[in-house]
């Protein structure tokens, strides 16, 4: 074992310990804020693993997207909710937690068996390393062109949907839409108070 | 990689229908933005025109010589073309229902149409997706727009609850599906194309690798969520009850058809090694869905909840055709979905019309409706009787085809369970019909007593009436004059390479029905049917 391999092994061990510890913390911590910060730590550890796998670009994207955007968003969400509420006592909590733990342990055991027993097809191509960005771009504009373009439709729709959910509703002006409001039409969803001119008796 | 040749290999004309829908949605968005609120008078018609343009484009490229496009990302074989047509048609009919409904709830129609069209695009891409990344992106496009549509009535707490439940269950099932897909990627050594996956996965000995079985289970969890098969159905009743009814109409037909398209393509092309296992899993799902969906529907008091459970049961029936695994089996699945499109959308159109006029969808409120609104009563009765499988309506022929195919393939348990649960389902469908027709005038419910005068001149009600009448006529006649539908369903299966390849593998000795299978051959019991 030369020096490089030793360093790699030690950093792998450290990163794994960090990730496992923080991931357990995310699930087990009582405070949501601690969970959110520990989640950021997990994401960072994952980026470290990508670096060890010689995937610089993915590591950078992981930090930018997950730590920089997703995790900050979660923290914003936690802070904006700002509601002090004690957990209510759930009857049979210990039994539920034991069941959950058992299911999780079983799943972990199954997946570990899968990972250890399967004859994985190892790719023979050499890692792209520094040329990863070019390789990814070539894929995005050749065999992954269609998903890449469909993702733009998805993002457009997500943008519109976010605005629809977040905006304050304007009161509908029925005369502008040409819908007469003298007809007796009622719906369960209909806002009773906020419609200025409604057909409600 | 030489990019000058890539453009010529893309075969980009195959996604023309989706392109038309995307252009339509951008046009609707821009018109709504520029012209303002008054544009809602005609943007729905623009959207419907775009969807019919897409259907016309699909019709023109039926069975292209080279179906694979975008270097393997997408396949427009007849099977996917037909499923894309079903999804586009269901979306068009859902739009005709939504105009008055959305306006009446005081929300914006323009954005509703845009999100609904995006969901349609997602479903259409999902039906033809031939590669794991494409499958996932299309699945997410469909799912995320469905969550948004479900929560569109944001001042209604039931809609919020439905959207949140749908989002949480849907996100976890997507994650599980993605885990399964990543296992497939690892097993095949970095292959993402569905038609190359099976060949790339090596099998040591006679047993398939354990990881493949786990991948299968995870992928099935994602698919079963989309087709709302038991035990992945928990979201269905709440979402159907809480979300706007036109959205439910689209989810129950379009989204479900997309799920079945994905199921056929993925299971047949990527999992031939574990064929026995996926048949077992789907048999369990089908039996559970048929039993639970139809039995729990008996106890429902809300019309939308009843149809939610009924749609769970219907998913079980459709799965029989998928499990038969013969040419007729796949054809019966496609045929039933086509028929289900008309009868279910007809039913939902009636529910929307009733709730527009009375503001309720409790089953008991329908009593005595016959006296006040014969047209609505007739349409709803035909739709429900067809869903129950009463001859001579379309649903009867769809069901008998499914059961016959299942019996031929030796799926006796499934067919018997299907027959028994159809009898149960007839009870709860007829209960509604009886409520509407048989009650005396003095037994009329409050809602029906205060029934408003029938006025079709309200903007948006004319298209609803048109959609309703078309769906009703199709439901009544598609059974007797089913020849074109049978032919198209059979043709789509016979001319789809992946299905034919799987049939060859499944039974190399028995004779494969030749390409010119006619309707008479399809319904008459024949000896050439492959029994695996």
Describe the fold and architecture.
The complex is a heterodimer of chains A (201) and B (532). Chain A has 201 residues and is an all-alpha fold. Chain A has a domain at 7-83: Up-down Bundle (Four Helix Bundle (Hemerythrin (Met), subunit A)). Helix content of chain A is 66%, strand content 0%. Chain A is built from seven helices and no strands. In chain A, helix 1 (3-28) runs antiparallel to helix 2. Chain A is extended. Chain B has 532 residues and is mainly α. Chain B has a domain at 287-532. Helix content of chain B is 72%, strand content 1%. Chain B has 23 helices and two strands. Chain B has helices at residues 3-9, 16-35, 43-60, 78-104, 109-128, 132-150, 157-187, 194-200, 210-226, 235-242, 245-270, 275-297, 303-324, 327-358, 369-372, 374-388, 394-408, 412-437, 446-449, 461-477, 483-494, 497-506, 519-523; strands spanning 68-69, 74-75. Chain B has a two-stranded antiparallel sheet. In chain B, helix 7 (157-187) packs antiparallel against helix 9 (210-226) and helix 11 (245-270) packs parallel to helix 13. Chain B is globular and about 75 Å long. Mean pLDDT of chain B is 89; it is low at 509-532. The chains are: A mainly alpha (201), B mainly alpha (532). At the A-B interface, helix 4 and helix 6 of A face helix 4, helix 5, helix 6, helix 7 and helix 9 of B.
Features of the shown structure:
heterodimer, A: 201 residues, mainly alpha, Four Helix Bundle (Hemerythrin (Met), subunit A), extended, disordered C terminus, B: 532 residues, two-stranded antiparallel sheet
Question: Helical content of chain B, roughly?
Answer: over 70%
Task: Write down the overall geometry of chain B.
Answer: globular
Q: Using DSSP, what is the number of strands of chain B? A: 2
Counting DSSP E segments of at least 2 residues, the number of strands of chain A comes to 0
Using the coordinates above, name the CATH class of one domain in chain A: Mainly Alpha
SS summary, helix count of chain B: 23
Q: Mean pLDDT score of chain A, rounded?
A: 83
What Rg of chain A do the Cα atoms give?
26 Å
